[in-house]
Amino acid sequence: MYQIRRAIRSxxxxxxxxxxxxxxxxxxxxxxxxxxxxxxxKHLFTTRLGGTSRGIFSTMNLSFHRGDxxxxxxxxxxxxxxxxxxxxxxxxxSQQTHTTNIRTVxxxxxxxxxxxxxxxxxxxxxxxxxEGLALVTSxxxxxxxxxVDPIKRVIGLAHSGWRGTVERMGAHMVxxxxxxxxxxxxxxxxxxxxxxxxxxxxxxxxxxxxFLDAFAGEISEDEKMQREPEQCSFLGGTNGKYRHMVEPGVxxxxxxxxxxxxxxxxxxxxxxTPDHIAVTDICTCxxxxxxxxxxxxxxxxxNLCAFLLLLPAEM
Length: 315
Description:
Helix content: 10-25%
Mean pLDDT: 92
Radius of gyration: 18 Å
Number of helices: 8
Distance between the termini: 30 Å
Structural class: alpha+beta
Strand content: 15-25%
Shape: globular
Low-confidence stretches: 224-241
Order of helices and strands: EEHEHEEEEEEHHEEHHEEHEHE
Number of strands: 15
């Protein structure tokens, strides 16, 4: 298996590497033990390994819109379907534009974005209670957010870049699940998936100021969280280098932004308990041969995807 470069030191196994015997190289994917323990979902986060695409898209590219051969992309989706035990017709894609818009997915949406055209746009979050229907969202540095309510049997996936994070996409997802399905935030398990880490994510002063303004009321609470290592062992920053969500960068007017910390703060403020949140320790930009990274590749890349599937109740 590929030797991942971990961005931070985590206690225990936060993310698990897995292999599936198809293709050359062998298909590799990532899962969260926290979500697996619910026993109501199958889920994964893709890597670059195990697909059929070539060149800058090699090999497991899941984007139809970046110039790759459509036949290769479809075969890549079929291979992920083998891992999950479903067909292409049982997947539904988002249509991401860095919003906080959320769509409740039904049986009628099955196959959209893969075997059927999309008839919606500006959707960065998907929620459903339909069994056997896999939600799919795409990434190449932005933050994947997974949500599982094992009590109400409701699942959600959201794409959260810096715009989605500062607008609290995670809180919008929790509110949507509560309003539409009666979910209690205390029952929801959430995972913050592989994405760019603070060490790699340099932003401009205007972006840094937006985060400081948006999270001003929670900064003191964030500092308290640094003294809770049993709950949030990753806090303290990349290898202990950073202590805060926004830190000055090397150059004047540049800042290092911690999207992982910001999304954790959003999820906790939304009512999800600390022991029900898993935070990635894998940075896309640190592992460009294993994970597509927009920043590391300067835009010459394919897309990774998050998949989340609600299992039938009898399983």
